[in-house]
Amino acid sequence: MVWGPKGSAQTSVVQCAVCGSHTELFELPGRSEKYCFECSADVATSILLTTEIDATTRSGEETAALVAEFLQLGRRLLSRAQLQ
Hints:
The chain has 84 residues and is mostly helical. It has helices at 37-58, 64-83, and strands at residues 2-3, 9-10, 26-27, 34-35.
């Protein structure tokens, strides 16, 4: 709780780091930001996809499908962020 002018209590406003919504927020390991349910799932997925793309690239395999999925995920996150 944050104390406002003349000692009045104000609740601190915390928003999703991606879309700005004021709902229940979640933390992801290794991240300082907090995210709503939908954004936390997408951010976690983007972290995993990045790891998989890197591993696939190092092994010399084709990454087109993973990159396409990553781009689609990025568009979804951007769209959600622009709605707020």
